[in-house]
Every structure is written in C-alpha cells, then in structure tokens.
Amino acid sequence: MPTITTASVSPLPISPPTTVTPQTPSLHNSSQPIKRRHLLLATTLSLSSFSVSVSIATARGLLQMPPPRLSNRYFLVRAGESEYESLGIINTNPVAKTSVDSGLSEKGKKQTVRAALELKALGACERNCWIWPSITQRAYQAAEIIAAVNGVSRSYIVPEYSFLDARGLGAYEGQKLEAVSKVYESDSISSTIKPPPIDDGTPNESVADVFVRVTQLMSILETQYSEDTVIIVSPDSDNLTILQAGLVGLDLRRHRDLSFAPGEIRYVDPSSIPSYKKPASAVYKCLNPPNCN
How far apart are CA 71 and CA 57, in angstroms? Predict the structure, then answer.
C-alpha cells in the first residue's frame, strides 16, 4: 500500500504594516490627481523668478525725456550739405535716401571734414567711439569721413535704418528750401501739426512724430551701451534739434531755436539736462481718501 508523506507547511511571515508618507503629486504622473494649490504654487514660483530676471535686463530700456541721467557721452552731428541742398531743393522722401543724389556735395564734404577734425580736437574718439549715422547717403558718407579722420574702424559704424531718417515734409517735397519756413511756423503753434500730405511716399511728420523716433533711438543707445561715446549723425537739423530739446526739457515748439547748420557738431552736456522732478502723481498723497482735495 503506497505511503503518503505529508510535508509540514510553515506559516507565511506577516510583515508589520508599512507607513505611507504622503507625497506631493508629480505633474509628470498622470495617474495622480493634480491639486490646484500645488499647481498655483509652482506657477507663481516660476513666474516670480522670470519677472526678476526680466526687470533687471530691461530696467535701462525705459527712457524718459528729459532723462534723469545719461549712461553715455553723446555728440550730435549734422551731415554736411547734400547735393539736393546745394540746388536749394527739399528732399526728404526715404525712397531716395540711399541714392547718390542724396549724398554730400563738394561743399558738404569739406564741411564734414571740418566736423571730423573738430571731433578729433575734442578727443571724442580717444578711447574709441561708436558712430550711429542714418542710412541716408549723406549721413553715412559723413560717418565714414569721421571714422577715417579719427582712426575709428568701420566696424564701429552702426547704420540706423529708420529712427534717423530726415523729417518727412510731405507736400513740400521737391519745393524750394525757403518753403521750410512754413513748416516752422506751424511747429511754433503746436508740436502735433503735420505738413500737408502727398501721395509719392514722402511722410508728413509733425514735431511729435520725430520726437517719438529720436526717443526710441536714445532708448536703444542707453540700453545697448554704458560709459561709451556715441556720435549720432543725422541727415538734417530737425532730428537733432528735437532730440536736444527733449534732452534739455525745452518746449518742443521751440526746437528751431537749436538749429544745426550743415556740418555742425554739438556735445550733449549732462549739466544742461535739468534735474528730474517727480510727476505730481508720485508726490501727491491723499490723507483722507476718498475725500481728497
């Protein structure tokens, strides 16, 4: 008779209960629910770190006129007489700004050489300098002359494509230079009056329009450079007079009082910039809101 052998079976060991530590749900684990407060906390932390880095990077990019201070040393230069100016003709259409006809006349070249020598005498580029000309032919030619006389590499010439365009005079385009006096009569009344329009592509810009352009230019320069020398070369006077009026706090309607002759240079003296005054909104305090006088 077969013998049946029975093996003794040991009871399985019973493990003590394990303690489960609560964990913050991972955003990468789709099987766990995402609590709203965790999501908001993570978003807030990431945005706060981002905003700090952005504010540091862009803090210098906001320029007010007149500015509390300038980070760079500036020279303003009007290019010498152009071929059109030698003929007594108004030419402000940006379509033709790179044309040879918009370049310096023989007289204008001599005026620009004198300006370059004056910059050298002032030591403008002793520790190197950046030259920012309009891409307009006469302004860029002037920049090349300034660079050559002052021993500045062409790599330090930075052409500006729009903010330094000659002021667009609209329907006065192609007329005699004497017609500009009508524009300045309107300027003295209001900085927002535009010259009559024309349909040939020539802008008709008010003083306020040009002011926006040159303020944007200064914002770029003050953000891009620090403790450098920048020479701004304009094809006309109005860019520079409106810019200087903004820097010194002069009524823009009087910008003509600061007129630049062809080939003239002018150093921007920081002492001529008035001390910054807080706007009324930053000074006035209401002590008994909402009853404020």
Answer: 15
Spatial strand order in the sheet of 73-78: 130-133, 229-234, 73-78, 265-267
C-alpha to C-alpha distance for 258 and 42, rounded to whole angstroms: 56
Query: Looking at the DSSP assignment, which residues form a beta bridge with residue 160?
Result: 134
Work out the angle between the directed axes of helices 238-248 and 207-224 (0-180°, nearest 10). 70
Phi-psi region of 207 (alpha: psi -120 to 50; beta: other; left: phi over 0): alpha
Q: What is the pLDDT of residue 26?
A: 47
Check: pTM over 0.85? Answer yes or no: no
How far apart are the C-alpha atoms of 119 and 55, rounded to whole Å? 37
Read off the pLDDT of each residue in 182-187 and give the average, rounded to a whole number.
Answer: 97
How many CB atoms within 10 Å of residue 265?
21
Rounded to an integer, what distance in angstroms lies between the CA atom of residue 27 and that of residue 163?
Answer: 48
Residues 256, 187: Cα–Cα separation, whole Å: 8
pLDDT of 63 reads 85
Taking a C-beta distance cutoff of 8 angstroms, is the pair 54, 211 a contact?
Answer: no
Confidence band, pLDDT 50/70/90 cuts, at residue 1? very low
What value does the mean pLDDT take over residues 87-95? 95
Could you give the C-alpha distances from 148 to 114, 156, 234, 235, in angstroms and in order?
A: 13, 11, 18, 19
Main-chain dihedrals φ then ψ at residue 61, nearest 5 degrees: -85, -10
Structure confidence at residue 293 as a pLDDT band (50, 70, 90): low
C-alpha distances (whole Å) from 152 to each of 111, 125, 131 are: 19, 7, 9
Residue with tokens 């927002």: 192
